[in-house]
């Protein structure tokens, strides 16, 4: 079988502490698999600078002048991890047979790349990298991340447990992915929706080699919330169920109040007045807020703004 033309897409946001090392590790591995005939001659590595404010882009430029196998893309500002991946992928739709996305911090084991390509050779159109060992992550990250996958699955989002954005997709899959035009794209949920034959490759997640996580807790929560609300209306349904239960309880309270009134011992107490008032008001606010969330999503999608803006491309 012909070796595949592969593009490795690496999103980078303020990764000056590690990008050089990432480049060296990836390029060594790339030469290695090229010699073995796993990937074709004209395969490439694409670093996408997601509007970094440090020296990341300068370093990518330097790498590009040293090696024509590296493509550099810089976005006009910080658009976010998912958008940076898309920028790298969509720009090269027609140029490669398959695409692997991998984080810039070497937390994903690059040795899984060969296994992914082998599965692709055997016919898999999508190969998910799945972490089977998270011992390198701090306990808090591990618990929140794994809880996130369970929650997503329970809400009907088709995510793959412990799979992040380390995956191989075939050119055909990428073409289909381009038809998913939502602004708020959540690749982990969208890619499984595309279908086709898929496989998994298991690997141990390593510790970040250098630099800091670009996903502090607040960004991680936002990411999770976006993932859930752009895929599932389950939270809205929960609120509706609550609404129904509340309504029934309210009716019982109303009956009780009326009954007391008829019996003539209707001395209104603070508790019976304030308690339901507070409770239902609070609940209404919550429901309105949740509906607002979804309307906000519609608002964003209706505007159909570009998902990213490429400022410059090198070696393309
Ligand atoms: N990243 C990005 N744009 C952002 C945030 C992150 O391109 O706005 C990149 C980052 O450089 C890294 C990948 O996304 O290559 C994953 O981020 P990180 O490793 O910080 O996340 P974690 O592994 O801690 O969840
Ligand atoms: Mg990381």
TrEMBL record:
SUPFAM superfamilies: Nucleotide-diphospho-sugar transferases. It is a multi-pass membrane protein. It comes from the Bacteria. InterPro entries: Glyco_trans_2-like, Glycosyltransferase_2, Nucleotide-diphossugar_trans. GO terms for molecular function: glycosyltransferase activity. Keywords: Glycosyltransferase, Membrane, Transferase, Transmembrane, Transmembrane helix. Its main location: membrane. It is found in: Membrane. The chain crosses the membrane at residues 238-262, 274-295. GO terms for cellular component: plasma membrane. Residues 8-177 form the Glycosyltransferase 2-like domain. PANTHER family: PROPHAGE BACTOPRENOL GLUCOSYL TRANSFERASE HOMOLOG (PTHR48090:SF1), UNDECAPRENYL-PHOSPHATE 4-DEOXY-4-FORMAMIDO-L-ARABINOSE TRANSFERASE-RELATED (PTHR48090). This is Glycosyltransferase family 2 protein. It comes from Dyadobacter luticola.
């Amino acid at each position: 079988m012909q070796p595949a033309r592969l593009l490795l897409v690496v999103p980078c946001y303020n990764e000056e502490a590690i990008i050089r090392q990432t480049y060296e590790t990836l390029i060594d591995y790339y030469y290695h698999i090229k010699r073995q005939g796993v990937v074709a001659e004209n395969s490439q590595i694409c670093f996408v600078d997601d509007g970094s404010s440090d020296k990341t882009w300068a370093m990518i430029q330097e790498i590009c002048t040293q090696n024509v196998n590296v493509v550099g893309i810089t976005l006009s500002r910080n658009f976010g991890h998912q958008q940076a991946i898309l920028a790298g992928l969509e720009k090269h739709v027609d140029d490669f047979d398959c695409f692997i996305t991998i984080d810039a911090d070497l937390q994903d084991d690059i040795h899984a790349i060969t296994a992914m390509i082998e599965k692709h050779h055997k016919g898999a159109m999508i190969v998910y990298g799945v972490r089977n060992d998270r011992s390198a992550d701090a306990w808090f990250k591990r618990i929140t991340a794994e809880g996130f996958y369970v929650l997503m699955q329970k809400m009907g989002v088709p995510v793959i447990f412990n799979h992040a954005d380390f995956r191989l997709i075939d050119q055909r899959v990428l073409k289909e992915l381009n038809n998913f035009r939502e602004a708020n794209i959540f690749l982990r949920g969208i890619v499984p929706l595309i279908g086709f034959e898929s496989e998994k490759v298991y690997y141990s997640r390593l510790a970040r080699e250098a630099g800091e996580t670009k996903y502090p807790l607040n960004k991680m929560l936002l990411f999770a919330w976006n993932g859930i609300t752009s895929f599932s209306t389950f939270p809205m349904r929960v609120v509706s169920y609550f609404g129904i239960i509340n309504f029934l309880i309210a009716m019982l309270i109303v009956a009780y109040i009326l009954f007391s009134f008829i019996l003539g011992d209707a001395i209104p107490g603070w508790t019976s007045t304030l308690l339901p008032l507070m409770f239902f008001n609070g609940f209404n606010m919550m429901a309105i807020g949740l509906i607002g969330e979804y309307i906000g999503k519609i608002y964003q999608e209706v505007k159909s703004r570009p998902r990213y803006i490429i400022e410059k491309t090198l070696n393309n």
